[in-house]
Automatic annotation (TrEMBL):
Subcellular localization, as worded in the UniProt entry: Endoplasmic reticulum membrane; Membrane
Entry's Gene Ontology molecular function annotations: protein C-terminal S-isoprenylcysteine carboxyl O-methyltransferase activity
Catalytic activity entry: [protein]-C-terminal S-[(2E,6E)-farnesyl]-L-cysteine + S-adenosyl-L-methionine = [protein]-C-terminal S-[(2E,6E)-farnesyl]-L-cysteine methyl ester + S-adenosyl-L-homocysteine
Family: Belongs to the class VI-like SAM-binding methyltransferase superfamily. Isoprenylcysteine carboxyl methyltransferase family.
Biological process, per Gene Ontology: methylation
Stretches of the chain forming a coiled coil according to its record: none
UniProt topology in membrane: Multi-pass membrane protein
Keywords from the named record: Endoplasmic reticulum, Membrane, Methyltransferase, S-adenosyl-L-methionine, Transferase, Transmembrane, Transmembrane helix
Stated name of the protein: Protein-S-isoprenylcysteine O-methyltransferase
Organism: Cercophora newfieldiana
GO cellular component, one term: endoplasmic reticulum membrane
Transmembrane segment boundaries: 57-82, 102-124, 157-174, 186-206
Length: 240
């Protein structure tokens, strides 16, 4: 007879599903994405880089995230009597219980997703309204310096950094759901090598997107943007 999941297992699974849904909502365009407003002489490599930061790439990376989140829920609700169909490699010997239950390894990234990344993204969506698009384009209603933008210039990028990295820490672990699909050695290489490199690339792309946006805003709003830029933080209020 299957073991009934505990309250802790149920709340953990609910938090995992909420985190996955929050990631998807945070990286879904709130408005139609128009083509980037780029000069005709923009080099092809530059056009390609800018295009990949406009949303399509964001959507693609969350396919694996969503799959691993659902698998984690299945493991969490059935542990320790995990059915074989949830163990593609046929064994749970490499599974770390701390990665499919409440622990510091799961609570911290979940808290970052639900308490920092998702709120920052959604607040930015709401504050900018129709001006928030994934394309590089001037705000439709002028330079917004109110709401969260009174304290920080790029809250959505701070949120995006959290939304990119925290799920990697949560789901791309050799002892978690990912490790059920590959050998222990391969899973450790992915966790310790591929994931840090991927996180670094994503953060670099966000940095380049920030540069592109600031250059565009400076060109459109001139002194108004310069004054706002000097008196507000870029990513973290009062810090950076």
């Amino acid at each position: 007879m299957p073991v009934q999941p505990s309250l802790s297992q149920i709340t953990f699974s609910t938090a995992i599903l909420a985190s996955a849904a929050g990631c998807i909502a945070s990286l879904s365009p709130p408005n139609p994405t128009a083509p980037a407003n780029l000069p005709s002489d923009t080099p092809l490599i530059e056009k390609t880089r800018i295009t990949t930061t406009q949303g399509t790439f964001n959507t693609l990376i969350f396919g694996p995230y969503s799959f691993l989140a659902l698998h984690t829920v299945g493991l969490a609700l059935t542990y320790p009597s995990i059915p074989r169909w949830l163990l593609p490699r046929g064994s749970a010997e490499n599974l770390n219980p701390d990665l499919i239950s409440w622990s510091k390894h799961t609570a911290i990234p979940i808290a970052l997703i639900l308490g920092v990344g998702m709120p920052l993204r959604l607040v930015a969506y709401r504050t900018l309204g129709r001006s928030f698009t994934f394309s590089l384009a001037p705000p439709k209603d002028g330079l917004v310096t109110t709401g969260v933008y009174k304290w920080v210039q790029h809250p959505s990028y701070t949120g995006a950094a959290v939304i990119f990295v925290a799920p990697m820490v949560l789901w791309y672990r050799a002892g978690g759901a990912m490790g059920c699909w590959m050998s222990g050695g391969v899973a450790r290489v992915v966790e310790r090598g591929v994931v840090p490199v991927a996180a670094g690339v994503l953060l670099w792309m966000l940095g380049m997107r920030t540069r592109d946006e600031e250059r565009m805003l400076r060109g459109v709003f001139g002194e108004e943007w310069e004054v706002w830029h000097k008196k507000t933080a870029r990513f973290l209020p009062w810090l950076f």
